[in-house]
Write a structure and sequence with these properties.
Mean pLDDT: 84
Number of helices: 2
Distance between the termini: 75 Å
Low-confidence stretches: none
Structural class: mainly alpha
Strand content: under 5%
Number of domains: 2
């Protein structure tokens, strides 16, 4: 009876190792692809940075404001 559970455990371990290898290989295959950022996302990010800079310039005295 113990041999049956041993074989089940070994088979399960083999399946999980194969699944981990698939995920690892997929991640390596996609690592070289450049990350593409959408136009809308880039626009929102640049707008947020501009608003933050303007808020900093208004909040600080003129000579301490970051440039």
């Amino acid at each position: 009876m113990h041999r049956y559970y041993t074989f089940l455990a070994l088979d399960l371990a083999r399946q999980r190792a194969a699944e981990a290898d698939r995920y690892r290989l997929a991640a390596l295959a996609h690592a070289d692809e450049p990350k593409r950022v959408g136009l809308l996302r880039r626009f929102v990010a640049r707008t947020a940075v501009a608003i933050a800079r303007a808020a900093d310039e208004c909040a600080l005295p003129g000579e301490l404001a970051p440039r």
